[in-house]
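User: structure tokens for this one?
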Amino acid sequence: MRKVCYGMAGAGFGLAVLLMLPHAAWSYASFQWFPHVGDGLPYCASCHASMHESYHPELPAEASQAQVYTTKHYKALEDGRGAYRFIDPEQRKQLLERAKKVDQNSSVQLEASASTVAPGGTITVTVTTRGGIGPVVGIMLLDEPLRFQARPISGTGWFIAAPPEILGADGKPQRTWLERRLNQQQTNLNFALVYDVISDPARDTYATTRVTYRLRAPSTPGEYPMTAAFLYGTAEANEMQTGKYEDPPGGGLAPSGRVQFSNTLRVRVQ
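Assistant:
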């Protein structure tokens, strides 16, 4: 029953997205066209594939493995099923080879300016990413590496005290994401979208980005976990050549996107 409910929820979400934005379903590159500019959680990326089964320990083993990229994406390409049933075998082979290279060269790391902080004190945490096919990648600052049950970092008492500082692949600050938000007085978001990310597996070049958050510590002493989610795509976005959005091979609901969690930090408030 639980597996069925998850499937129904995911299908319902996907249908809602298609009705609202039929040109921009849930492939990752399309997210830049969504009106959503707010806090984010990794469960909303229902068509993405997880990098590890440990991300969803609440699921039965079979259902958890079905969310993992080697099953959800690679196996679908190999077998020509689901979103890839109308793509010829040679193209599926090329897509699989590209996805494997992108995955092998995509990573995320979380660092903090201090491992301890006084109640109400301030620290900075920095998320560094490498890879993702582009043209955008997403970063979320969360409490735990759980695909369906993580909370924004604010859920455990931290306060994001300033807008996230976003550095693009060229090393320059970006405000594109934050400027899309109507309420410019509240841009202290846990979710950041980084634009102009271009990786080229054929040339073995992979973009790096960095997002830094300034956090005010909870008032209650204790040890607090924090992690980052890295959301990226593996299927080349045609807009990188044409300048306009087109669905990736397999369509916007193909499982070519990824959810990858960083290392988990434990910061002591005392």
